[in-house]
């Protein structure tokens, strides 16, 4: 099969990749095409924009977290039911983990045999853009840079001069531009863009962006480039092999403005292996969903909604009691923060949380951790057994304080800076700063389903014996 596909890559971060990706998706949809969006790397927030604009769940493809075979499988699973796939890159084209290419947009492009459209911010330069594009072409000739789009263009003359030098010096077609326009900037804060769960893109923004793309970018040529791929690389199916699952269990997923950091493939994997997913809101739900066998609380921004979370005492009390009764709960980052006794916000004000774990979590004045890590399980838990390994990504501004000296850590974490410990365990609860992609080691998802199933059986026995 030959799935039409393109990657929008940047010379560096903040060159306008997300804005251009959204505009191109809008223009493709206007032509009646079903567009499947993807995001390179571990980001949770940009995909919320892709999902809103495309009408299809955006998927993450991370060549450090995931193997080649898994990336091919996850991509093909969605690409085969779309007309074209649009992938937004991460950071600069060649930026990966340290000095290696794993995790980079370029590495992903080579794995998928996908043409790259390079986004160049030409604010305050023109002829120098030719040197920049030439360097990107020559750095790794196995990367197919099939075209260039210019951003922050000051005038038509600026565009024509810059386009000319790039095409003459690099033999790479310039496909169009976006003008310098501050109203096209997407809203940001301490973890990046503001997710659309909180603030959806308004129709006026989308209409303006679409009009600019239609006017200034050669969409017909972009479509032709997407179709000029040389087949799709072969790979074996690892995750979604034909194997129907019986005896479903029910997992409640926390989802609202405070908790919305989930890889859609993680949710699909849980469903594939036997979970029926039901959503609830820690901000607004007064009760947990009925007849649940487990809970999944993802990351997000609980620090921005601490008063509302603290005020929903009925839900917190029920969750606390269900934990005492053995309900399996898996919590990542923001979920960890919610399960502590207290959350201290950026202003130093503290709020009562669920209280599963002793101690508090406090927001810092600066980023506390950002990067890929390797995870080794130290103690059996609802996701893994001692000695199990996985890859993960950690990104947080908060830190734990006043936790007991005898706290039981689930994980030993390694990165290029050393070793530290993470993951709190209590009852059937695992809460960690580490964000896992279940396709990196699917046994973690299977073990969570198994833990929920065991809890359900115990509950049935309790019912049977009064």
CATH topology of the largest domain: Rossmann fold
Radius of gyration: 23 Å
In terms of DSSP E residues, the strand content is 25-35%
CATH-defined architecture of the largest domain: 3-Layer(aba) Sandwich
> Termini separation (Å)?
57 Å
Quick take:
By secondary structure, the protein is an alpha/beta fold.
Describe the protein's architecture and organization.
This protein is of the alpha/beta class and 466 residues long. The chain has 2 domains: 5-227, Rossmann fold; 249-464, 3-Layer(aba) Sandwich (Rossmann fold), CATH 3.40.50. It contains 13 helices and 25 strands. The chain has helices spanning 17-30, 46-54, 68-79, 105-111, 128-139, 156-170, 203-216, 219-227, 264-272, 306-311, 313-324, 334-339, 443-464; strands spanning 5-10, 35-40, 59-61, 84-92, 116-121, 145-153, 174-179, 188-189, 192-193, 249-254, 259-261, 275-280, 294-297, 299-300, 329-332, 340-344, 350-352, 357-363, 369-377, 389-396, 398-401, 409-415, 418-426, 429-432, 435-436. Helix 1 runs parallel beside helix 2 (46-54). It starts with a strand and ends with a helix.
């Amino acid at each position: 099969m030959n799935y039409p596909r393109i990657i929008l890559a940047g010379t560096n971060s903040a060159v306008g990749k997300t804005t251009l990706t959204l505009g191109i998706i809008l223009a493709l949809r206007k032509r009646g095409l079903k567009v499947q969006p993807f995001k390179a790397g571990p980001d949770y927030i940009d995909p919320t924009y892709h999902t809103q604009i495309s009408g299809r769940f955006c998927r993450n493809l991370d060549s450090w977290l995931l193997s080649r075979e898994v990336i091919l499988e996850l991509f093909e699973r969605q690409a085969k039911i779309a007309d074209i796939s649009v992938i937004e890159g991460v950071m600069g084209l060649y930026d990966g983990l340290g000095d290696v290419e794993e995790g980079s947009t370029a590495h992903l492009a080579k794995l998928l045999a996908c043409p790259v459209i390079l986004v160049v911010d030409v604010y305050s330069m023109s002829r120098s853009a030719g040197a920049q594009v030439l360097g990107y072409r020559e750095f790794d000739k196995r990367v197919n840079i099939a075209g260039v789009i210019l951003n922050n263009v000051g005038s038509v003359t600026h565009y024509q001069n810059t386009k000319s030098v790039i095409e003459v010096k690099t033999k790479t077609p310039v496909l169009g531009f976006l003008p310098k326009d501050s109203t096209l900037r997407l809203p940001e804060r301490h973890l990046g863009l503001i997710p659309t769960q909180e603030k959806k893109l308004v129709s006026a923004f989308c209409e303006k962006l679409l009009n600019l793309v239609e006017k200034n970018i050669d969409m017909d040529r972009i479509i032709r480039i997407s179709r000029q791929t040389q087949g799709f690389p072969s790979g074996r199916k690892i995750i979604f092999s034909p194997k129907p699952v019986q005896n479903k269990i029910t997992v409640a997923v926390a989802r609202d403005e405070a908790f919305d950091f989930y890889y859609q493939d993680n949710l699909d994997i849980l469903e594939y292996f036997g979970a029926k997913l039901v959503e609830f809101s820690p901000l607004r739900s007064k009760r947990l969903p009925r007849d649940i066998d487990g809970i999944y609380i993802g990351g997000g921004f609980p620090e921005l909604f601490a008063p509302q979370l603290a005020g929903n005492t009925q839900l917190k009390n029920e969750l606390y009691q269900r934990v005492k009764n053995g309900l399996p709960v898996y919590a990542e980052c923001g979920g960890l923060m919610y399960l502590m006794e207290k959350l201290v916000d950026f202003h130093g004000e503290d709020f009562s949380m669920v209280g599963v774990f002793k101690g508090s979590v406090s927001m810092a004045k600066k980023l506390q951790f950002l990067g890929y890590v390797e995870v080794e399980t130290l103690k059996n838990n609802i996701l893994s057994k001692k000695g199990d390994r996985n890859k993960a990504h950690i990104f947080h501004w908060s830190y734990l304080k006043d936790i007991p000296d005898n706290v039981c850590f689930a994980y030993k974490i390694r990165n290029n800076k050393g070793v530290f410990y993470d993951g709190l365990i209590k009852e059937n609860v695992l809460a960690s700063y580490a964000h896992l992609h279940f396709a990196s080691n699917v046994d973690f998802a299977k073990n969570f389903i198994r833990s929920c199933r065991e809890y359900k059986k115990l509950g049935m026995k309790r019912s049977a014996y009064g």
